C-alpha cells in the first residue's frame, strides 16, 4: 500500500508559493512541480487552489505576472515576487521556523 502525501496545513499555501518564487520567477505548473520536488512528493498543490492563491497574491501586490514562453515553448504566465512579496516571505518564514521549533520541542521524546 502506497504512502499518501501530507495534507496542507491551513494558511501555508501562500507561504509555499512565495517561498518557491523567492528562488526566481516561475509559471504555475513550475511552482507545483517545485513544491513536489522540494518535498519529495510529500506535498502537492491542486491546480484550482494554486491559481486562486496566485491571483490573490497578485491582488495583494505580493507577486507580479507577465506572459512568456515555458520550457516547451507554450505561452504561460510567469510569476515573480515584488519587493513587498520578498518582505512578506522573509517575515512569514521566520514565524514558521519559530513555530516549527516550538512544536518540535513540545513533541521531543514522543
- Rg over alpha carbons: 15 Å
| Average predicted confidence as pLDDT | 92
Biggest β-sheet: strands ordered side by side in the sheet: 1-3-2
Number of strands: 3
The succession of helices and strands, N to C, reads: HEHHEEH
Helix content: 40-55%
Uncertain stretches: none
Biggest sheet, open or closed, and with what strands and sense? 3 strands, antiparallel
Structural category is alpha+beta
Oligomer: single chain
Could you give the distance between the termini?
26 Å
Note the overall shape: globular
How many distinct helices?
4
Strand content: 5-15%
What is the secondary structure topology, with strand pairs?
Elements: H1 13-21, E1 26-27, H2 28-38, H3 47-59, E2 63-69, E3 75-81, H4 83-107
Antiparallel strand pairs: 1-3, 2-3
Walk me through the structure:
- The protein is built from 4 helices and 3 strands; from the N terminus they run αβααββα.
- Helices cover 53% and strands 15% of the residues.
- The chain has 110 residues and is an alpha+beta fold.
- It starts with 12 loop residues before the first helix and ends with a helix.
- The chain is globular, with a radius of gyration of 15 Å.
Amino acid at each position: 500500500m502506497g504512502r499518501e502525501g501530507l495534507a496542507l496545513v491551513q494558511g501555508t499555501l501562500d507561504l509555499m508559493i512565495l517561498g518557491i518564487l523567492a528562488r526566481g520567477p516561475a509559471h504555475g505548473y513550475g511552482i507545483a512541480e517545485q513544491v513536489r520536488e522540494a518535498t519529495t512528493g510529500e506535498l502537492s498543490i491542486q491546480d484550482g487552489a494554486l491559481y486562486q492563491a496566485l491571483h490573490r497574491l497578485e491582488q495583494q501586490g505580493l507577486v507580479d505576472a507577465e506572459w512568456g514562453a515555458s520550457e516547451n515553448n507554450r505561452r504561460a504566465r510567469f510569476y515573480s515576487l515584488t519587493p513587498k512579496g520578498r518582505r512578506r516571505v522573509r517575515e512569514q518564514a521566520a514565524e514558521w521556523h519559530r513555530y516549527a521549533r516550538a512544536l518540535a520541542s513540545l513533541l521531543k521524546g514522543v
